[in-house]
Amino acid sequence: MKKVVKFECDICSELYTLAESAIKCEKRHRLTEKLIPEFIEKIKIKYPDIDIQWEYYKRENQYDISHNYIYEDIKFSSYVGELIKEMFFNNRIFNVCFAYDYNKYKF
Ligand SMILES: [Zn+2]
Predict the structure, then answer these.
(1) What is the pLDDT of residues 5-19, one digit of tens each?
(2) How far apart are the CA of 27 and the centre of ligand 1, in A?
């Protein structure tokens, strides 16, 4: 029986057959964690009163960015949508979600 050596991403614990792939995965996490604060800053320039927090959920390997801005406002959604596309999707980062947090900000 051939023994398969697995390489683990230190951040999400995903297993890879190539060490290179595990390193790539870690690099992507680092890039994501660098981009999220930049993303938040860009929103705050336009919407200074907004509160935005983010957390990483290892089990889902997902970055949840939550905010307290109740958007009736199409401008907000399209501004944020463009940023998400430009900063995350264009970098092939798809495990980021941005949503109003009902639990955190309920009245
Ligand atoms: Zn990973």
Answers:
(1) 899 999 999 999 999
(2) 8
**What is the Å distance from ligand 1's center to 5 Cα?**
17
Query: What are residue 74's phi and psi, to 5 degrees?
Result: -65, -30
Alpha helices in 47-100 (DSSP H): 74-87
How far away, in angstroms, is 82 Cα from ligand 1 center? 25
For 55-65, the pLDDT digits (tens) are 999 999 999 99
Specify the number of domains making up the chain. Answer: 1
Q: Give the CA angle between residues 104, 74, 88 to the nearest 5°.
A: 70
CA of 10 to the centre of ligand 1 (A): 7
The reply to whether 2 falls in a domain is no
Range of the domain at 66: 28-105
